[in-house]
Amino acid sequence: xxxxxPTATIIVWIQVxxxxxLCFLGKRVLWLFLGALGFFLTYNLVLAYLPxxxxxxxxxxxxxxxxxxxxxxxLAEKGVVWIGGLLGGGxxxxxxxxxxxxxxxxxxxxxxxxGALLGLLTARFLVNLGLAVLTSAVGAALLAVLLPAEQYRxxxxxxxxxxxxxxxxxxxxxxxxTSPKEEQ
Length: 184
Fold this sequence. Notes:
By secondary structure, this protein is mostly helical. The chain contains seven helices and no strands. The protein starts with 6 loop residues before the first helix and ends in an 11-residue tail after the last helix.
């Protein structure tokens, strides 16, 4: 029996998996972080600019976009942290804008630009801690936007963000480091 899962269900499962991995593993899965951002960015861009495209084509293009970004991360490690800060901050800015203005339509370019700038600065000056913050924020946002009750999204975001930071801080500092200052 061949049962096909609807595209929306697949997207939700990818989003949940990526959100949890990003929240709790952060830098250890940097390629996944950027690959997931590439997937969701491609998915949203294809839906916005090619609205009549069949679902299968949207998924194929989205997977290709995510795979391309993930592969570039694995191949070009230098500068990846800055790119991650830029992309992660921009995506987090857009997702946070959805919390603040859930009924707004269109692309929130100012929120994306501000988030990208803050993400870039954070990744530049506090690499490990910055990645923990960015990956926790993006992971938490990916999970929170799935909650149907809008009034609880911010609560879930804060809880998952804090849990992600606590878990990743433990992972980062286990390697003989005692504080985030020593990592700079």
